[in-house]
Specification:
Barwin-like endoglucanases, 4 domains, 17 strands
Amino acid sequence: MNFEAHKPIVMLNKEDAAELDLMPLERVLLRYGKKECIAIVNISKTTVKEGEILLSINVQNELCIKKPSIITALPASPPKSLDFIKKRLNGTELTKSEILSIIQDTVDNKLSDIELTAFVISLEHFPMSIDEATYLSQAMIKTSRRLKLGKGAIYDKHSIGGVPGDKTSILVVPIVASFGLTIPKTSSRAITSPAGTADRFECIAPVELEIHEIEKVVKKTKGCLVWGGAVDLAPADDMFIKIEYPFSIDPFLLPSVMSKKKAAGAKYLVIDIPTGDETKVKSIKEFNKLSRGFIELGKRLGIEVRTLSTYADQPLGHAVGPALEAREALSTLMWKRPSIDLVEKACAVAGVLLEFAGHKNGKKLAMHSLESGKAYRKMKEIIKAQGGNPDIKPSDIKVGKHVVKVKSKSSGIVEWFDTKAVAEIARELGAPKDKGAGIYFHKKLRENVKKGDTIFELYAEKRHKMKRALSALKKKDIMNVDTKFDMVLETYPEETRDRYYFILER
């Protein structure tokens, strides 16, 4: 078969499968000369003739087969780790060796997607203990590649996400590196958001570097902003993320974050936990609970962790979408029309990292690095080392050619944002695949608006995506301008209102 599958797969004729007593998604042991490979079986009545077997490219490569050949096919026993997955489905806590077995077989592609899904769902329904989180982190670290950056302390930051326009890392990395601290930021691409850090920074410089190239950049500049998926810092976690995404669940959050940070060599870590109605963490109580998990897991892995609960009820800065956010981050580093809330958050995060290193008044020092141009000069070094143009200007970053200005129908103040709707509309516009797509907000919370003022602009690279976003906007509001602002939102009960029993999300 002339295609690369994400698992080793083969296709057998129905009669051959019956003779081998094989059902779809069971395993077959293949032998060719001295080479062996275990693959997952697909069955067909017509695609493959009796006596033949079709191999995906990765199976061909593993067996070193370059032309039609005679091979041996035998039924293969399921991996032992499948017994441990079944055990976990019953809610039974797994041991260190059992978890390592599952993770090793995941990385070796010995488990089918259905089997991996069963493991993920078991952790969603029966949340892992801190011991299991530790074992999962250790197993994912053991099966990953590691950055080798010498003996000095490594500093890092991570956000669990949920805020459109969060380009904080593009400021934090050069601020921290400008003080001589090592901060190798490996970041993700967007899954459900309009942009991940890798998507944003790719508008400024290349982010898909080999591991030896990353090490070279960091040793030269003290920092980097690269896509983590290119270097296999936690390959098992990347597989689990693909399964979590359709279900909108995240049972691997703690080991997912911490294993990647440990693989990058982090000694000191700040975790940004956006907190608000539209985010994963909706209250300070939930923030405290999650923070305890991160801090305890950090102790077990040798990472000192601090967490920050950050405001999340509106987009961060004014821009949402890869190119627009890259422009805003670069403008802020150049101290040209800096976004105040972006600066506030970036300096708070960078300040904690600086205080880890023994500096006092970390936030104030971080602010000075931005205002003085020290952080911008460091960013130019990083851009050049990663293969980009260090003299790039915000205007050099292309945005979508289709632009629609949305004006306010009334005077008043901005009362609220629906951040989930903001993300959805930005994705309708084409973000993150279309780098130039997104939204630019001219007004933020509590700001005054006059009737006819432009409150936001929509950008799209393709006309049909702009039409799709405008259609979606008719069904949902992403922000609201009200003529007054009442401190009392509602009175309950009212005589005209039916009485309900309900549970508050917070």
